[in-house]
Design brief:
The protein is about 80% helix and about 0% strand. By secondary structure, the protein is mainly alpha-helical. It has one domain (about 5-175): CDP-alcohol phosphotransferase transmembrane (TM) domain (Four Helix Bundle (Hemerythrin (Met), subunit A), Up-down Bundle). The termini are far apart.
Length: about 190
């Protein structure tokens, strides 16, 4: 274990606290949840930065970092869907969570055939992640019904993130398509 891996694990440890606090009948629950999620988002950036800077990248970190991100984001989106109970929240949440499942399966398949690098993280994916983290943090600050500028900005960022999510999924699937179709595999 090293500091970057500890930060990655911290994100997963924060998930039950996020859920517990979200459902507590206390006035500050939205602020506390937004703070927990923002702290987790910062550790997402910071653990990768430290691992590269200190040359402490590990197979565990490479595997668990994206898992921790997906657990945190999916949990927060589920909480928001439950809170707002509206299609306008559910649709981008389903797009984002569904894309994560598809791309995780795609990366696993590509790794199995030795072509993992053809679906490596790209800049669109990085922008998508930043947008998601900002959107979710702002939406956690905005209790239902949505009535504040913070909430509307968060919602706009969530939709931008959902669009970037679809775009990045297209880019990954397009890159992997030759290995997913029987015609191109037969030619190899």
């Amino acid at each position: 274990m090293n500091i970057p891996n500890t930060l990655t694990m911290l994100r997963v440890v924060l998930v039950p606290f996020l859920v517990l606090i979200f459902y507590l009948p206390i006035e500050m629950r939205y602020t506390l949840c937004a703070g927990i999620f923002a702290a987790a988002a910062v550790t997402d950036w910071f653990d990768g930065y430290l691992a590269r800077r200190w040359n402490q990248t590990t197979p565990f970190g490479a595997f668990f970092d994206p898992v921790a991100d997906k657990i945190m984001v999916a949990t927060a989106l589920c909480l928001l869907v439950d809170e707002f109970r509206a299609a306008w929240m559910t649709i981008p949440a389903v797009i984002i969570i569904g894309r994560e499942i598809v791309i995780s399966a795609l990366r696993e398949w590509m790794a199995e055939i030795g072509k993992r690098t053809s679906v490596a993280v790209n800049m669109i994916g990085k922008f998508k992640t930043v947008g998601q983290m900002m959107a979710i943090t702002l939406l956690l600050l905005a209790p239902a019904p949505l009535e504040s500028m913070i909430g509307y900005i968060g919602l706009a960022l969530l939709y931008i993130s959902a669009i970037l999510t679809l775009w990045s999924m297209y880019v990954y699937l397009h890159a992997a398509w030759p290995d997913l179709t029987p015609f191109s595999r037969a030619e190899s």
